[in-house]
Design a protein that fits this description.
CATH architecture of the largest domain: Orthogonal Bundle
Number of strands: 2
CATH class of the largest domain: Mainly Alpha
Low-confidence stretches: 203-223
Largest sheet: 2 strands, antiparallel
Helix content: 40-55%
Distance between the termini: 46 Å
Mean pLDDT: 89
CATH topology of the largest domain: Death Domain, Fas
Radius of gyration: 19 Å
Number of helices: 12
Structural class: mainly alpha
Length: 223
């Protein structure tokens, strides 16, 4: 499978294993240094992993026939571990979030998302790593770029709300709580806090839903 070409979504997963030797890694892939520097400068507001993802995507657009074998070789040359690469392929990935039934029952884990979930999900996402999350959720780089342009004068929370709403409304197979949690875990986001926020707790015989004080109230999505 290492002879397979790297997709954009898989590039987001590869970036998880690229470290401080990223410039040498891209040099080994014959990615021009000016491309690396330009992408890092343009996206310096993002998390390091998302910056690396942007460079990889740019490289794949220039060289769409880049294979996993080439990526693995470049990683090996610069001391990066490649043992996790097979888990990047969809066929080798977990399809259910690993969470106890006592914490989040299966019926709630597999619950279909609705627009009313947008605000609570948004407040638990890492705003500096949103490109990786939304690629994991199936957005193309072009779609993410379009949102970036359309919302360039808005706060990032407003953009994330709009992207989540787009994801929930227009994904062919209705997305579930499980779908978002898996994407968050892939992106090293705090999925535990979202699980807690979406988990009912019982007090004095009445079932209530826990939600921490929101830094992104629902009305912010309507700005």
């Amino acid at each position: 499978m290492l002879e397979k070409n790297v997709s954009f979504k898989e590039a987001g997963r590869v970036s998880r294993y690229i470290g401080k030797a990223y410039q040498m890694f891209f040099a080994s892939l014959n990615c021009p240094i000016e491309v690396v520097e330009q992408e890092m400068e343009e996206h310096r507001h993002l998390a390091f992993r998302s910056q690396v993802t942007k460079i990889l995507i740019k490289h794949l657009k220039m060289k769409p026939d880049t294979t996993f074998a080439e990526v693995a070789d470049a990683m090996t040359q610069h001391g990066m571990k490649t043992s996790a690469l097979p888990r990047i392929f969809d066929c080798n990935r977990d399809t259910t979030c690993n969470v106890s039934e006592e914490i989040l029952p299966g019926s709630r884990l597999q619950r279909n998302l609705s627009v009313s979930d947008v605000s609570i999900i948004a407040q638990h996402l890492d705003s500096k790593a949103y490109p990786n999350l939304f690629m994991e959720l199936g957005f193309s780089p072009q779609t993410i770029d379009k949102f970036d342009v359309d919302f360039k004068n808005k706060q990032i929370g407003v953009q994330i709300c709009a992207m989540l709403e787009e994801f929930i409304k227009h994904t062919n197979s209705c997305p579930t709580v499980n779908t978002v949690l898996l994407a968050m875990q892939e992106c090293n986001m705090d999925s535990a806090s979202l699980i807690k926020a979406m988990t009912p707790t019982k007090t004095t015989g009445v079932t209530v839903c826990y939600q921490r004080n929101s830094v992104l109230p629902l009305k912010a999505c309507d700005v």
